[in-house]
Amino acid sequence: MSAAEPPRGGNSAPPGQRSGDSRKRVDHASAAMARHTDVFDYEQARYNMVEQQIRPWDVLDQRVLDLLFAVKREDFVAPACRSLAFADLELPLPNGSRMWTPKMEARVIQELMLQPNDRVLEIGTGSGYLSALLASETADVTSVEIDESTAADARTKLSRLGFSNVRVEVGDGARGFGSETHDVIVLTGSTPLLPERFFEQLAQGGRLFAVVGELPVMTARLVRLDASRGKVATDLFETVVAPLENALTPARFEF
Predict the structure, then answer these.
(1) Residues 6+ apart with CB under 8 A from 220
(2) Are 232 and 214 in contact (CB under 8 A)?
(3) Is beta strand 231-239 parallel, antiparallel or unpaired with respect to 217-225?
(4) CB burial of residue 241 (10 Å; 0-12, 13-18, 19+)
(5) In the chain, at which residue ranges do the beta strands (DSSP E only) sit?
(6) Which DSSP symbol is given to 128?
(7) C-alpha distances in angstroms, 114 versus 70, 159, 176?
(8) Nearest Cα to 167, choosing from 175, 178, 176?
(9) Which one-letter DSSP state was computed for residue 74?
(10) Hey, is 166 helix, strand or coil?
(11) What is the CA angle 199-202-205, rounded to 5?
């Protein structure tokens, strides 16, 4: 059979019909491609977040960078904000508080130098995302949230995602919480003054992170307890974070 000779037998269609079928196939493929491009590419957005926000903020520890790919930030934000989960924004939470920016979360995790046997106290659960990051690198996390509905929402997310080593408690932790000691303490809201109670709850060699100060100047501070329980403070960067409810404030003098 020559190349120009039409095939014998079978159900060959007239040329016009074959052309119409081809056009239909092209239309279907174009529609499928259009639907595909409408789907938000979370992994690409996550990669862009790491490369464009996290690394430029001096977060270079590969263990921390890998953690940001492993713990899915979009699982902890409101459904309407999922496509903004990787933006350099403080995303709102239903109770009026806000998440930290991704770069701040990553920088704090790096600075704390978390160890597998660390016991962590987190003051201010919020979305539960930072709790999940902490829990991924440590033995256990106690997270304290003053707003009951926010605590319940975070507890549900963490349980659903398999973070069994996080305990979310409802309470006021702005000036300390419970009687246990911890290797790491993280305050997610700012505090004008750091209550001494936190250092009483910090184990020897422990690390505490807090944003200290009032508007317009606040400082992200890491404090370590040395072998003699002396405080070694390092100011990391300036930032502005909403204060913890009932945070310790300086005495106000009235004249």
Answers:
(1) 104, 108, 209, 210, 211, 235, 236, 237, 238, 239
(2) no
(3) antiparallel
(4) buried
(5) 119-123, 140-145, 166-170, 182-187, 202-214, 217-225, 231-239
(6) S
(7) 16, 22, 21
(8) 178
(9) G
(10) strand
(11) 110
Tell me how far apart the alpha carbons of residues 137 and 114 are, in angstroms, rounded to a whole number: 6
* Contact call for residues 103 and 53 (beta carbons, < 8 A): yes
Compute the distance between CA of residue 173 and CA of residue 169 in angstroms, rounded to an integer.
10
Interatomic CA distance for residues 124 and 4, integer angstroms: 77
Burial category of 251 from C-beta neighbours within 10 Å (exposed 0-12, middle 13-18, buried 19 and up): exposed
Q: Does the reported pTM lie above 0.70?
A: yes
Q: SS in 3 state form for 43-59?
A: HHHHHHHHHHHHHHHCC
Structure tokens at 91: 């995303």
Determine the Cα–Cα distance for residues 36 and 217; give it in Å rounded to an integer: 46
DSSP string for residues in 169-181 = EES--BTB-SS--
Amino acid at residue number 137: E
Structural domains in the chain, sorted by start: 93-239 (3.40.50.150)
**Residue pLDDT, tens place only, 49-98:** 999 999 999 999 999 999 999 999 999 999 999 999 999 999 999 999 99
Residue 15, H or E segment: helix 15-38
CB–CB of 110/59 below 8 Å?
yes
Comparing C-alpha atoms, which of 192, 199, 190 is closest to residue 244? 190
Over residues 115-154, the pLDDT tens digits come to 999 999 999 999 999 999 999 999 999 999 999 999 999 9
